[in-house]
């Protein structure tokens, strides 16, 4: 079986759990005899391709005057004028060519529209433009490769999946890793919501990363429950036995690692830290991540007068994440709405006990983790305090937590995804 898979990021160039999940899933699919063609907007050349054939959308050349791309022509006109796609003509020549094309559908001489798009692959100000271009490129890719099923991850790639389905006639599976309600609460971006809904409506199956997410997909987007299936994420096994980093300070370390955004509940972590420090000054707190609430969180730490016990590292990835866990005594994920949450699994894999919110998908499958409501700061502080001060409890969660995550394998998750593919082929 061969899968054409669309994703916005792939390790080591990631911004969060999505890229990590894509990598783990593709390795699991490889072990289940599924070949994956993985399309990214921009490849850097250092990606691990042991389990995938990586297709760089920035390398794909198309001629957008072709009727093959007619459906997208109107959408792309405003993009192309701004991006100066014709560097060797004057503005007057360009608009003359455009006028001729619109009137006759023909362009005399060599096509000025035969080109590649140089994607940034980022989440910047021109994200929507890149999403549209990516969907356009998907048409060319889908017509150039043989495959059995299409798999698109999150809303950024849903339209690419839809276009690939139109061209190839192959079934489409979309993967919902996070909904707009998770990211924004009730203040949703309507445009993103509409794209999520349209992608799921066009899909033959929708995979959700938790039952929590499945309920949102069904109840908030109106998607037929019969085509929405839950496949929980997993975690990559440690390549070597976890070791403790040598500390050059006496305090214990409590870590928050994730995007500093509304969804992740960073403010609850800070308020709990303040309560703990009223009882025990022998603790340091680390907020590892970046996001739109970072400056607000720094200001709040200053207001509470706990800055000497609080550290902001910025975004961490790769070996730096492992080092952070190796220094940590407790890991905390107080998310307001977490579709799944791979980071607690990574912490437990490193022998770090965890406190997670009940409002997370990973809480559905973990037994050896302390679970609290994200808004209950007292319960959050008490849970952290207990793991820091009662060695028997901490040791139990370390031992059994590590055993638990060792059984959460991507091979098993991938087998469930393969069964989803088989149900639509």
What descriptors fit this protein?
425 residues; alpha/beta; Rossmann fold; 3 domains; seven-stranded parallel beta sheet; six-stranded parallel beta sheet; 15 helices; 15 strands
Characterize the structure shown:
Strand 1, helix 1 (17-31) and strand 2 (35-40) form a beta-alpha-beta unit. The chain has 15 helices and 15 strands. It has helices at 17-31, 70-82, 91-104, 127-144, 154-168, 180-184, 190-202, 211-221, 266-279, 294-303, 319-327, 343-349, 377-389, 391-406, 410-424, and strands spanning 2-6, 35-40, 53-56, 61-63, 114-116, 149-153, 172-176, 205-208, 228-230, 252-257, 283-288, 310-312, 330-333, 354-357, 370-372. The chain folds into three domains: 2-60 and 118-234 and 413-424, 3-Layer(aba) Sandwich (Rossmann fold); 62-116, no CATH class; 252-406, 3-Layer(aba) Sandwich (Rossmann fold). The model is unreliable at 73-95 and 107-113 (pLDDT under 50).
Strand content: 15-25%
Number of domains: 3
- Look at the structure and give the CATH class of the largest domain: Alpha Beta
Q: In what order do the strands lie side by side in the largest sheet?
A: 3-2-1-6-7-8-9
N-to-C span? 10 Å
Unreliable runs:
73-95, 107-113
Largest sheet: 7 strands, parallel
Round the mean pLDDT to the nearest integer and report it.
Answer: 87
Annotated CATH homologous superfamily of the largest domain: Glycogen Phosphorylase B
Radius of gyration: 24 Å
CATH architecture of the largest domain: 3-Layer(aba) Sandwich
The coarse overall form would be: globular
The portion of residues assigned to helices is: 40-55%
Total helices: the number is 15
Question: Which structural class best describes the helix and strand composition?
Answer: alpha/beta
